[in-house]
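Anyone have C-alpha cells for Peroxynitrite isomerase? Sequence:
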Amino acid sequence: MPFELPDNLHPACGPIAWMLGTWRGNGHGNYPSIEPFQFGQELIFTHDGRPFFHYMARSWVVDEQGEKVREGAIETGFLRAKTDGEPGEVELLLAHNTGIVEIWAGNAADGKVEIVTDAIGRVEGAQEVTGGKRLYGNVEGELLYAYDMAAEGHELQSHTWARLQRA
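Reply: yep, here.
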C-alpha cells in the first residue's frame, strides 16, 4: 500500500515518518517466567504537525488457530523526534496498563528505529522490569519489530516479536 508524507509533517520527524498510520498483524512471545504465546496486535501512530507522534498499541492473546483468547497488553505514549540533537535522535515515553512507565532513547534512520530504556518506573505490585531494547524496521513495506526485556532477575533477552501490515 503506497504511503504519502503528510503536508504538515515536522521536518525532525522525517526518519520516523514511515511509521505513521495503523498497523495490524501477529506476533510471538516467550520469556523464562511465562509460557510461549501468540498474539494479535494493532499499533497506531498519529501526529498533528509538532515534532512527535502519539503512539497507542494494544494486543490480544490468540490460540493456535489464531482465535482471540483474551485481551493482552496496552501501551500508549509519545515518540519524540529530538529537535536539538543529531538528526534521527528519538525518544519514546510509554505508559503500560500493567503499571509500568518507561523512557526510551535511540536513533532512527533508513527505515529503522533502535531504542533502549533510559529510565523505568513502576507501581507497587507491577512486574520488575530493569531494561529493554526495541528494534522497529520497515521491511518490504511492513513493520517488523523485536522487543528484548530484562525482568524479574533475568538478563536482557528476546521477549516479543511481530510482523505488522499497514491497515
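The two ends are 9 Å apart (CA to CA).
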